[in-house]
């Protein structure tokens, strides 16, 4: 029998409690139940929830991307959503994939989300907060490069709807260009300024066929871009600002007044010009190196280690192992992909050379930065030699080769610049990847002779049944301008002139051998006329620029040899059949004059030695007379950009495509 008021048995128990976001256990004395068990303690429910473990973990920002384009709705995203989106480091690859999987029609249906993205990104950039600004610029660069590349039913209006809406496009894009311009000019760090250039490049190249680019034209980005180029420490970093300036300068330049052309002409900042030229030199060096990596044609000087390496004993001399040689099919495939996207910056070089004579002077005369690399113009010519040898491999390479020929044309037709080209000497490495090879020139040489080699190489290495008539026509025009200047100024060069005559007359033989294929091509007759102009300039003015009488005699000797081919060329292409004063008839008459003299001598002596033939040629000068139009003056007609409108628009389309690909990298 239990005693009254006897103390009940008790037991110590631990009770879990949630305090200050932490799970704690509090000790408590719990009475035993009648069965002798402790009474059940009450446990508060934990606020923690367990999510389902995902198959693949991904950054949180990717979930925000998915949430931005989930379905068709017009719900406003909370302010915290945008702050978090631009606070987190962007996942460029995943954002590009998500946008790439979104079709243009779906983007139009959810245009509210894309419009809000642009508006809040602009606000983030204007805030000036560094990490958020960088993230917003990276996000916009990807957004523009992917969204603007899609195929829309009505490109201009549909793109406006996706980005800003027809009602708000003026306000949004005015704010966008103002923000980007300020960011490029005074964006704080160089990294932010470069990212602003990349974002601007993405929207300009992507929307180049729409009216949206007019906002960037009206704003005038030229001062901000030139300021950035002048302040950059590494010349390669200036490629994107220069490309952007070139795109803006060529936008509708033949339809409306473009203020960037005036900016190019009025630009007189010497230090900034030199920075631009060094950037062009660095770009040319990088582009040339891409060719050399595929097929190394670096000249190797003699050495003991080199000789041992040749016979497989290079390890004895500590020589570095040679780079592996790629199989020929792989070389062809890689060479067809050249040149790199950086070549698009040469459009800006064209505009500077066209509009600014001071820039042309600096371009030719600027020395190397440190002596380890050749001067900028030497590097430009060197890269072009690789480009010209492989211009036939793609229409893109041919287009850029044509662009650089326009640059050379503008330079050589200006007497002041042509004089600099004839007087300035520097080492120039020319491409030697494909035969036939011109004689190698070691040491310094004048730029004028390097340009002649460059043009000769281009003529030799692009002979195809489907002849690139534009490339050949422009090459011959540049050559005729240069020879005309040399003849008028009586500038004599020691140069392998015989190689030039051999290449030109070989081209004559090619035109007659493949006349059925060539005559179908556009401008084929113009190519033939240009070729005859070069030969007649050499004939009538060669005495003024060839170094001695022997070189002049060699020209006549080769013309005599080619007399029958010239007649066949005239008859095949039906050129100048009724004009005795035409260049080709003059060349034929000179050839026939000497042929008659040689035949008269052969009646006395059956076999004539080369020395005897040369003697006949010298005697023939006394009886030689010909009446020819002043072809040198005809060839010296100044370059007018409007005459090249079609070609320049084609070049601009290629550059815009490369710029869009560059911005999307």
Automatic annotation (TrEMBL):
<dbReference type="InterPro" id="IPR013636">
    <property type="entry name" value="ARMH3_C"/>
</dbReference>
<dbReference type="GO" id="GO:0005829">
    <property type="term" value="C:cytosol"/>
</dbReference>
<dbReference type="InterPro" id="IPR039868">
    <property type="entry name" value="ARMD3-like"/>
</dbReference>
<dbReference type="GO" id="GO:0016020">
    <property type="term" value="C:membrane"/>
</dbReference>
<dbReference type="Pfam" id="PF08427">
    <property type="entry name" value="ARMH3_C"/>
</dbReference>
<keyword id="KW-1133">Transmembrane helix</keyword>
<keyword id="KW-0812">Transmembrane</keyword>
<keyword id="KW-0472">Membrane</keyword>
<protein>
    <recommendedName>
        <fullName>Armadillo-like helical domain-containing protein</fullName>
    </recommendedName>
</protein>
<feature type="domain" description="Armadillo-like helical">
    <location>
        <begin position="439"/>
        <end position="663"/>
    </location>
</feature>
């Amino acid at each position: 029998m239990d005693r009254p008021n006897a103390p009940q048995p008790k037991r110590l128990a631990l009770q879990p409690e949630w305090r200050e976001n932490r799970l704690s256990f509090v000790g408590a004395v719990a009475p035993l139940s009648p069965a002798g068990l402790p009474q059940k303690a009450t446990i508060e429910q934990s606020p923690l929830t367990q999510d389902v473990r995902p198959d693949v973990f991904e950054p949180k920002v990717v979930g925000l991307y998915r949430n931005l384009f989930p379905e068709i709705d017009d719900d406003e995203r909370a302010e915290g959503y945008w702050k978090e989106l631009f606070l987190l480091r962007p996942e460029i690859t995943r954002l590009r994939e998500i946008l790439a999987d979104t079709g243009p029609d779906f983007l139009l249906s959810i245009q509210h989300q894309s419009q809000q993205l642009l508006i809040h990104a602009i606000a983030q950039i204007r805030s000036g907060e560094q990490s958020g600004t960088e993230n917003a610029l990276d996000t916009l660069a990807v957004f523009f490069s992917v969204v603007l590349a899609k195929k829309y039913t009505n490109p201009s209006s549909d793109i406006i709807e996706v980005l800003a809406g027809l009602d708000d496009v003026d306000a949004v894009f005015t704010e966008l260009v103002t923000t980007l311009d300020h960011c490029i000019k005074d964006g704080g760090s160089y990294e932010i300024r470069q990212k602003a250039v990349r974002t601007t490049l993405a929207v300009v190249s992507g929307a180049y066929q729409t009216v949206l680019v007019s906002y960037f034209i009206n704003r005038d980005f030229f001062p901000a871009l030139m300021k950035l180029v002048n302040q950059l420490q590494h010349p390669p970093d200036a490629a994107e600002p220069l490309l952007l300036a070139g795109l803006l300068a060529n936008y509708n330049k033949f339809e409306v007044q473009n203020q960037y052309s005036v900016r190019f002409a009025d630009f007189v900042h010497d230090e900034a010009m030199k920075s631009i030229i060094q950037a062009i030199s660095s770009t040319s060096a990088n582009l040339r190196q891409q060719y050399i990596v595929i097929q190394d044609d670096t000249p190797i000087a003699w050495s003991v280690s080199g000789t041992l390496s040749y016979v497989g004993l290079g390890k004895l001399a500590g020589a570095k192992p040679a780079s592996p040689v790629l199989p020929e099919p792989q070389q062809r495939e890689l060479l067809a992909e050249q040149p790199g996207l950086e070549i698009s910056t040469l459009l800006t070089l064209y505009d500077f050379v066209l509009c600014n004579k001071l820039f042309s002077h600096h371009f030719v005369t600027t020395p190397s930065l440190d002596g380890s690399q050749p001067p900028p113009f030497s590097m430009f010519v060197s890269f072009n030699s690789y480009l010209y040898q492989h211009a036939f491999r793609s229409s893109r390479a041919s287009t850029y080769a044509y662009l650089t020929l326009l640059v050379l044309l503008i330079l050589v037709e200006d007497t002041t610049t042509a004089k600099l080209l004839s007087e300035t000497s520097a080492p120039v490495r020319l491409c030697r990847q494909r035969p036939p090879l011109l004689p190698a020139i070691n040491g310094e040489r004048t730029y004028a002779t390097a340009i002649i080699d460059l043009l000769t190489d281009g003529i030799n290495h692009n002979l195809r049944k489907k002849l690139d008539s534009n490339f050949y026509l422009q090459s011959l025009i540049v050559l005729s301008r240069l020879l005309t200047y040399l003849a008028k100024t009586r500038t004599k060069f020691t140069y392998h002139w015989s190689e030039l005559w051999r290449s030109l007359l070989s081209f004559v033989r090619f035109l007659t051998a493949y006349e059925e294929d060539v005559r179908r091509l556009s401008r084929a007759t113009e190519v033939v006329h240009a070729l005859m102009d070069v030969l007649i300039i050499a004939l009538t003015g060669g005495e003024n620029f060839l170094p001695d009488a022997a070189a002049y005699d060699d020209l006549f000797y080769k013309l005599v040899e080619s007399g029958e081919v010239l007649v066949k060329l005239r008859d095949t292409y039906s050129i100048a059949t009724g004009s005795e004063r035409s260049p080709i008839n003059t060349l034929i008459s000179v050839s026939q004059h000497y042929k008659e003299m040689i035949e008269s001598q052969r009646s006395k002596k059956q076999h004539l030695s080369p020395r005897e033939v040369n003697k006949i040629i010298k005697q023939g000068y006394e009886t030689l007379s010909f009446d020819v139009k002043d072809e040198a003056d005809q060839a010296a007609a100044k370059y007018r950009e409007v005459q090249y409108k079609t070609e320049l628009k084609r070049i601009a389309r290629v550059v815009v495509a490369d710029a869009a690909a560059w911005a999307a990298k």
